[in-house]
Automatic annotation (TrEMBL):
Domain Ig-like as annotated: residue spans: 1-93
Species classification: Eukaryota, Metazoa, Chordata, Craniata, Vertebrata
Family: Belongs to the CD200R family.
Superkingdom, taxonomy of origin: Eukaryota
Name the UniProt record assigns to this protein: MOR1B protein
GO cellular-component term (any): external side of plasma membrane
Membrane topology of this protein: Single-pass membrane protein
Amino acid sequence: MGDNAVLTCPLKPNVTLVTWKISPKVEGHCTLGYRADRNETDRTSCSGSMNWKFRPDLDPALEIRQVGIAQEGNYTCEVVSGEGNFHKMYHLTVLAPPQLSLYCDEQGNPVCEAAAGKPAARVSWVLGSNSPLEEQGHISGTVTVLSRLTACSTNVTSTTCVVFHPAGNWSESIGC
């Protein structure tokens, strides 16, 4: 999330037409088109964050700037040339790294929270614990995961929470 994405399209000689058909999960469909005989580009209902990476006659790649969850969906490139018709399809999935916070609750128990991750993060404790996880889904498609370490013995001065996520892994320690 927040990075730029470039989706490539088959580059063929004697291209006559290139079309990107974009079907995001959230927003409406849009298309980007290029006609070689007129050296003309056209766009229908595409946001300003989606455009040709370079000139479509030289490289028909699509660039999506500042990728967000709203851009998740299917992207299909169609190329028409003297060699035939070619298609390339992508399914874009956006990862949102969670925000890690570690604190002590009112009872003095360590609490580890991985907020607004996509997909949901996995949370565990280095000391090992079967602490139940609480998950809260958000309208944005992200998930907050919270774990409360309640099986901590009195002689432990510090414990470490570990968060696993496809966008990265993090750990943090706390003493309550």
